[in-house]
Amino acid sequence: MAGEFTHASVGTDLTQAEWEALATHIADGQVKDDVLYFNGTYWVRIGGEIVPIITKGGNVLHITTQAGWTASNTGTGGNGGNISYMYVLTGTTASSRGLVYALMNGFEEAGGIWSYFNYDKKLYLIFNYRRNGSDSEAVARFQLKRANTEGALADLGIGIRADNLDLIGESYGTELGEVDLGTTLATDRVSQIVIIHYPGSKIEWYVDGTLKGTQSTAAKIPSGSSASANYLVSSIVNGVTGGVNAIQAILHPKIWQER
Amino acid sequence: MKIVFSKPELTCVSLEEMLGLARGSIRETNIYPDGTIEIDVVKALTSEQKDKIETTLGLREKK
Is some CB atom of chain A closer than 8 A to the CB atom of B31? Predict the structure, then answer.
């Protein structure tokens, strides 16, 4: 098939040197700056740029952090942000909550309802994460889910939870799944978190480029259409003691969903 | 001479303090992307308390 690699002509018999030579495989129709892409059957050329692969091959969104979020806070809970990050905080009053949520629209295509979310597509959720204010009673979460409220996943969704500074991966298909990511964060430092959802197969959580946990139990992996609104939710709650302003910050959040 | 102003902090506790309410009198505040502010109170606010919110925060109650 044109656009793949082809074999250079080496005559009737291959010598060992010809077999090992870099020039044994040559381009067949590609031009400078092309990118090879596996279309499920063949390696084919994509003209010129990597950007079309990312954008046309999926729904990609660099999520805004400064506007479009609804805040729902209690006690001394609060929220804020700028163009590169967003935070929720508890303040120092006990039993406070900082929470923001935003609708995720346009992630169900091919005849699906525009405002729903298709969990049968491969998904990347990528963000930088910061916790500040160590409080043993604080629980922070960043979730993509079929709800806009605080708390453990109780419906379709994926996300992370920080029990104070300890990271846990959360997911829900028909039941809640929790994966200890074996990571204790340092306060006021940023870690990149990547969640990859392989529909019907597994969910992976990476922290700073290292795979820290995998969920492969089918019941704990979301699937199908959300069949109702789907949200991103960032939240933090403290406990009955209070006294510490615990903060969760999400920086540079991005989502990519296979088309 | 520069004079600096800032918006008052809008939390349940700061609102309770502003209105002289007991802690827990305001369950939740919801601030929507269009700027609408919803305050969920345990007991209805008096007209004086609503006036104070409007005056202090520069808001108008939606009816």
Answer: yes
Distance CA A158, CA A49 (A): 31
Q: Does ipTM top 0.95? A: no
Q: What is the pTM of this model?
A: 0.86
Rounded to 10 deg, the angle between the B47-57 and B12-19 helix axes is 120
Structural domains present in chain A: 5-56 (no CATH), 61-258 (2.60.120.200)
Whether the pLDDT of residue A4 is over 70: the answer is no
Q: Identify the three-state secondary structure at position B19.
A: helix
Chain A interface, best mutation among B7, B10, B13, B15, by max A CB count within 10 A: B13
Decide if B48 is inside a domain.
yes
Q: Give the confidence band of A1 by pLDDT, cuts at 50, 70, 90.
A: low
Q: What is the pLDDT of residue A2?
A: 59
* Domain membership of residue B34 as a residue range: 12-57
